[in-house]
Amino acid sequence: MLKVYRGRRYSPEEPTAFLNRQFGSVRDVYSWALALATTTDQTPGNGVTRVQLDKRLNALKQELPWLGEAAAQPLQDALVHLDKAVIRCFREKG
After folding, report:
1. Of 29, 35, 37, 50, which has the fewest CB atoms closer than 10 Å, so is most exposed?
2. Would you list the domain boundaries of the chain?
3. Closest Cα partner for 56 from 29, 74, 87, 38?
4. 60 vs 45, 79, 90, CA distance in Å?
5. Residue 94: pLDDT band with limits 50, 70, 90
6. pTM given for the model
7. pLDDT of residue 59
8. Rounded to an integer, what distance in angstroms lies between the CA atom of residue 78 and that of residue 26?
9. Contacts of 38 (CB under 8 A, 6+ apart)
10. Cβ neighbours of residue 39 under 8 Å, at least 6 residues apart?
11. What pLDDT is recorded for position 57?
């Protein structure tokens, strides 16, 4: 016969705080890039490219020191996901 134990396990505060900071940083970078992408001209060839966003992200990390504490890869992934979303949104349907 199998026994079942019910309970809840809480993670330690340090990893939880790190993940909360990481998720918050990714969310802020995505929102920043989305605002930048929507305020620029969206005609083909005039929008903000992912490479331009990557360069501006480095400048943003210099302005906001708390953003530099986050890992770089998830921040860059947020820009990749936004780029794909913008491409899908403005793609001609046909």
Report:
1. 35
2. 15-90
3. 29
4. 24, 13, 26
5. very low
6. 0.78
7. 93
8. 6
9. none
10. none
11. 94
- Distance (Å, whole) CA 19 – CA 25: 10
Contacts for 65-71: CB closer than 8 Å, 24+ residues apart: 66/21, 66/25, 67/25, 67/28, 67/29, 69/21, 69/25, 70/21, 70/22, 70/25, 70/26, 71/22
Q: Is residue 63's pLDDT more than 50?
A: yes
Rounded Cα distance, 27 and 34, in Å: 10
Among residues 85, 82, 31, 87, which one has the least CA distance to residue 60? 31
> Which has more confidence, 83 or 29?
29
Asked if residues 71 and 83 have their Cβ atoms less than 8 Å apart, the reply is: no
